[in-house]
UniProtKB/TrEMBL annotation:
This is Vacuolar protein-sorting-associated protein 36. The lineage of its organism: Eukaryota, Sar, Alveolata, Ciliophora, Intramacronucleata. GO terms for molecular function: phosphatidylinositol-3-phosphate binding; ubiquitin binding. It comes from Paramecium tetraurelia. Component of the endosomal sorting complex required for transport II (ESCRT-II). Keywords: Cytoplasm, Endosome, Protein transport, Transport.
Amino acid sequence: MEQSLFFLSAEMTAMKAFNEKTQSIYQNMQFLDKKLKMKVPKLSLAITTHRLIFTNHTNIDQLNVNDVKFVYFVIPLQHVKSIQSKTGFLSSKIDHINLETNLGEVAIFGDNLEGPLLLIKGSIEKKEWLQKQEQQQTSSVYCGMKSEIMKKEKQTQQTIDTVQSTFKGGFEELFKNATELKEVSQYIKQNIKKGENNEIDEILSKIGQSRLDKSEDLFYEKLAEQVYKLCAELFPKMGGIISLLDVYYYFNKRRNSSLVSPEEILKAGLQFQKLNYQAKVERYDGISVIESTQYNSDKDYENTLGKHISYEIGLTAEQLAKKLGISVMICKIKLKNAINQGKVCVDNRIEGTRYFKNLIINI
């Protein structure tokens, strides 16, 4: 009997699926393994939602893993490929049931096989073993996804909390320290005489103040030198004119500090002509700018605005600024200079102001 592929140990037979249920038990049944031509009589047949169990156990509902003295033939219904009922020669009564499985063919003999046949077909059609598998897989996938989502949300929240705490504490302390540092530097500048302490000179230079000299004039001369070097780099990109706000931004960004104020930048710019630098501070419509002394409005127009403005299609100041890579503020200053020279005309519309080349001066 142990040679049959359907023969299982008591331990394996007693292992049930989570949702496996016994539907009915039939007595005095015979099991036939057609491959081995082995027929075992007087067995009980338990039809469950998942299996057919043949055994000589007296109480099949209480199978125990240690019941080794009993025989067990088990047919998993998921392996059944076809089921057929056979009748006798002289009777319409079912004589036996043939089952074709993946493990081989078997036959079931017994009295009143109509009931077992219907139950077996019903279990095969319902396929409850598959439904449970799908539920378990879905549950597993859902639990896995839920776990990953919760993990990601936790990590995100931790990151947010860390960033918020850093911004809240870090920047407050940074600006507080920067303000205190500036107050200290101002005090040193006003109260320590020139050359009195070289170590303090070096410290002030490293923090971006460049206050190597404590007198007001010498401090702004040194600052003017640094500001002019920055402007000389920016003039080719900005078209010879830079707003004071842009200079303040670029100057402090380069030093990763905000210790130099706009007022100090302006005072340093006013030193340019005195120091014979090729730049000066100008004001256009209340806007302070630093302008190169080599700036030529006619040449600048040909190299910048004149390349983008046409006679047919008008452009706004914002569109021109974007094309030139400069601020709208500086673009409007250049447009005003071109208008005063008669090179550009203005069309004020409801949807906005547009600028065109002046056709009349070229006629």
